[in-house]
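Quick one: structure tokens for this chain, please?
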Amino acid sequence: MSIRATYALDEQTDQRIKHLAKTWRVSQAEVIRRSVQTAAELSRETLTPAQVVARYANDALPRNKQDTKRVIQSLRAMRHADDKRRAV
């Protein structure tokens, strides 16, 4: 059963939906269905900070030392870029 609904979207979102519909060769409604499904799946996978701490309290992180260094460098770079952005 289909449910008809009306939503007010900004022009950029409307254009993105139309672009995706054309690229994927599906209807705009299908673009919205897929996008909502993906967002819902991602939100289920997102852990709270407390869950992350509990998960790794006794177990090793699932990466090697080199990967950990890369993650740290990446996070530092993002933090510095954010600091610069905020200073403007």
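The mean pLDDT is 87.
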